[in-house]
Amino acid sequence: MDRTGFDQLFDMSDRTVIVTGGTRGIGLALAEGFVLAGARVAVASRKADACEAAAAHLRGLGGEALGVPTHVGDPDSLAALVSATVAEFGGIDVVVNNAANALAQPLGQMTPDAWTKSYSVNLQGPVFLVQHALPHLVQSPSAAVLNMVSVGAFNFAPALSIYASAKAALMSVTRSMAAELASSGIRVNAIAPGPVDTDMMRNNPQQVIDAMAAGTLMKRLAEPDEMVGAALLLCSRAGSYMTGQVVIVDGGGTPR
């Protein structure tokens, strides 16, 4: 490897990245990382004002950015996200499936509506977004898909079994996608974050947050920015021989 090759390892210049749930928390941190690495980024979330604010913020970092209001649980909305991104930037190189909802219902109080709502966003949405983007990904010389799962896919998840099971299913889909799409030159990987200091985390009672932090070897929550390095690895040339993998980024809380 020479200096040019080394300098290109994490370079995302001339690549277009879609980040769902990209207006706050982990998603916004990932979008910032991709923009700073040189990518054009389309951020998607349900609220139009949040999308435009995030896009303006990313442009303020010196990058090209687009905000597209999107309901990840609606396949037609996902098709519109792909169309808007391609119309603005000319193609798609990377899809980051970060949007999620963490519906919490214990056994005995579960409703079919909660299962439908959770799985439509946490599982169906990522699958159909990749499907809509596929004609563009196959045209990219550096295509990658990154699915954000959760350590809940591995661990006991009392009261969160709907969310955790959807993330476990998305982990399985990640491996199936990787196998199906390898011949098209598309790499598919996942990150399983541990407890991260986001709005979703702060919706928990403080004693639950403290217990989650205490369950890690590092005895703290992650900052959203701490997911960026792993994401860039899996989506850039640095991870060119990685596919079908799940990278656990959890402060040492999940022995595997």
TrEMBL record:
Q: Where is the Ketoreductase domain?
A: 15-194
Citing just one GO molecular function, the answer is: oxidoreductase activity
The name this protein carries in UniProt is Oxidoreductase
- Which family, according to the similarity comment? Belongs to the short-chain dehydrogenases/reductases (SDR) family.
- The keyword Transmembrane helix is annotated on this UniProt entry: no
Tell whether Oxidoreductase is among the UniProt keywords. Answer: yes
Keyword annotations from UniProtKB, A to Z: Oxidoreductase
A Pfam entry, by short name: adh_short_C2
